[in-house]
Design brief:
Elements (H helix, E strand, L loop, with lengths): L1 H18 L41 E6 L5 H9 L6 E4 L1 E2 L8 H16 L10 E2 L9 E11 L2 E2 L1 H10 L7 E8 L5 H10 L4 E2 L4 E4 L6 H11 L2
Parallel strand pairs: 1-2, 1-5, 5-7, 7-8, 7-9
Antiparallel strand pairs: 3-4, 5-6
């Protein structure tokens, strides 16, 4: 009987010690989780840095086209080239040595009158010598640098745009105008007539002759404004 009681007592002691095991102190076991080894040590791929890319990225080039008789526009374009990367075409009259300033700019006045009278006739536009451009597809943006003649765009530059304006459809068109004091609305109207399907950036940049030497900051502000 004593042996039976002793065995029964020993059984109760073992069961009691088992009930106090530390593995059951908290539901879910230890509060500090141990890392589980990754069965695949290959690093995860880097996330896409731009999950929502621009559907119309700007990747094309910029072309600057200009005419300059007094070299004011040339000075402006030279400064512009220090601020953006672009190809450049300088339009030149086919006839060399023309003195547009002679006789109170009589030659230029006659050229503008001819264009005004028949703007749709190729014969109204003076001949120019400019490298031929077969394809404008590589350009997204075209910046036109224009002097003002009698409230209109200088005639030689009008010839270039009359020839190639149709190939500039859908392209961003920026306009820089140089004048002594007259407003530039007539030059803007000429540009839109000659490039009827251009996407014109607003505003145009008007630089008066007296501002030419200090045009750098004006160009920088304009580039920022038209983005």
């Amino acid at each position: 009987m004593k042996k039976f009681l002793y065995l029964l007592f020993a059984t109760f002691v073992v069961v009691g010690l088992s009930a106090c095991s530390p593995d059951d102190n908290e539901p879910g076991g230890s509060q500090t989780e141990q890392p589980t080894p990754d069965p695949d040590p290959t690093p995860d791929p880097e996330p896409d840095p731009d999950p929502d890319p621009d559907p119309n990225p700007t990747t094309g080039k910029t072309l600057i086209v200009y005419y300059s008789f007094t070299n004011n526009v040339h000075t402006i374009v030279t400064d512009l080239q220090t601020q953006i990367e672009a190809d450049v075409i300088r339009v030149e009259p086919a006839e060399e040595g023309l003195d547009y300033a002679a006789n109170n700019y009589a030659i230029g006045s006659a050229l503008i009158s001819a264009i005004r009278n028949n703007p749709n006739d190729a014969a109204s536009y003076p001949a120019i010598k400019t490298p031929a451009i077969d394809d404008f597809s590589e350009y997204d943006r075209i910046i036109v640098g224009a002097p003002l003649w009698w409230s209109n765009m200088a005639a030689p530059l009008q010839t270039f745009l009359f020839t190639y304006g149709g190939q500039m459809a859908g392209k961003q068109i920026g306009l820089i105008v140089s004048s002594s004091s007259s407003g530039i609305s007539g030059v803007e109207a000429d540009a839109k007539r000659l490039i009827p399907d251009g996407d014109f950036l607003s505003p145009s940049l008007w630089i008066r002759s007296s501002q030419t030497s200090g045009c750098h900051s004006m160009i920088a502000d304009w580039l920022n404004e038209i983005n």
